[in-house]
Design goal:
Layout: E1 4-6, E2 9-17, H1 21-32, E3 38-40, E4 52-55, H2 57-66, H3 69-75, E5 81-86, E6 92-96, E7 100-101, E8 104-105, E9 109-112, H4 113-123, E10 129-130, E11 135-140, E12 147-151, E13 156-164, H5 171-176, E14 182-194, E15 204-209, E16 213-219, E17 224-232, H6 237-240, H7 244-254, H8 260-267, E18 275-281
Parallel strand pairs: 2-3, 2-13, 3-10, 5-15
Antiparallel strand pairs: 1-2, 4-9, 5-6, 7-8, 11-12, 12-13, 14-17, 14-18, 15-16, 16-17
Helix pairs in contact: 1-4
Length: 284
């Protein structure tokens, strides 16, 4: 699908709104079928909010198809299981991530978001991603089947196909009439701790379940450990979430009665990886 320009109007075959994991993966998949796309990302660079995420067997099958799985496996060792501890009772349950399932051998790894995004972005042809491209409105053309996407700088893009990969506050979802995402009443603090000389944790997830707070951590590699908390949302979360130092102080206060190992993790966090965000969901 080709491209043409007339004044501040641009004609595109395939337009993807959102340059996160979903958008990048969609762009790579289309490219592997010989389809060129334009990806509109409102930020000025790849966004890594969330620090890391655990990817399970089916995700690795998809990444194999996209051609990026092997490079990610080299940087993120396979996890063997999880240990879930009820707090403060201390009751512990062990879960195994090894063995054979319906999709083959189980495979679970904790992958840094920045590494995953960069691996996907490298697969795309130059010029596929347009940064600082905020979509402000979408409408259907009155005289054709094209969809008109207006950007913040006034550019109009007329697309044959428009794909929304722009997250919980999706402008594309709103345009097609999907219900707005809802607040779950809970929020999450996430960060990435670094041990320059290497950490002592084994290849498994550690979770602590309290009455109002759940916390956990999981190694990404021999030096970096992803950690998180989930808790009931507070009215002050939006203010705290704007300042990484305040997020750090808030996390340490919430975890003050939890095991020392997770407090030590939080103290070793790379300050620029800290986020405090509400957990939203979109009802089907």
């Amino acid at each position: 699908m080709g491209i043409s320009n007339i004044g501040n109007e641009q004609f595109e075959g395939l337009v993807i709104v959102g340059g996160g994991i979903a958008g990048l993966a969609t762009g790579v998949a289309l490219q592997r079928f010989g389809l060129k796309s334009l990806m509109l990302e409102r930020a000025d660079s790849l966004r890594t909010t969330g620090a890391a995420l655990s990817l399970m067997t089916n995700a690795w099958r998809a990444l194999d198809i996209l051609g990026v799985a092997e490079s990610l496996r080299l940087k993120h060792p396979q996890l063997q299981g999880a240990q879930v501890t009820s707090f403060p009772s201390g009751f512990t349950k062990q879960l195994s991530y090894t063995g054979f399932g319906k999709c083959g051998n189980h495979e679970v790894r904790c992958v840094q978001r920045s590494v995953l995004l960069e691996a996907l972005a490298k697969e795309l042809a130059p010029g596929t991603i347009r940064f600082n491209a905020k979509v402000v409105s979408i409408q259907q053309s009155t005289d054709s089947s094209l969809t008109i996407v207006k950007l913040g700088d006034g550019t109009l893009i007329k697309a044959k196909v428009l794909i929304g990969c722009d997250g919980g506050n999706s402008v594309v979802a709103e345009w097609v009439g999907l219900p707005a995402s809802s607040l779950s009443g809970r929020s999450a603090i996430r960060g990435l701790a670094t041990y320059p000389e290497g950490h002592k944790f084994g290849p498994k997830v550690q979770q602590f379940w309290g009455e109002h707070l759940r916390a956990g951590f999981v190694p990404c590699n021999e030096k970096d450990v992803y950690w998180f908390t989930t808790q009931s949302s507070l009215s002050c979360d939006s203010d705290i979430g704007r300042d990484p130092k305040s997020i750090l102080e808030n996390a340490l206060e919430r975890l003050r009665d939890y095991p020392e190992e997770i407090l030590d993790l939080v103290k070793k966090t790379q300050i620029d990886t800290l986020t405090l965000t509400p957990l939203n969901l979109r009802w089907p």
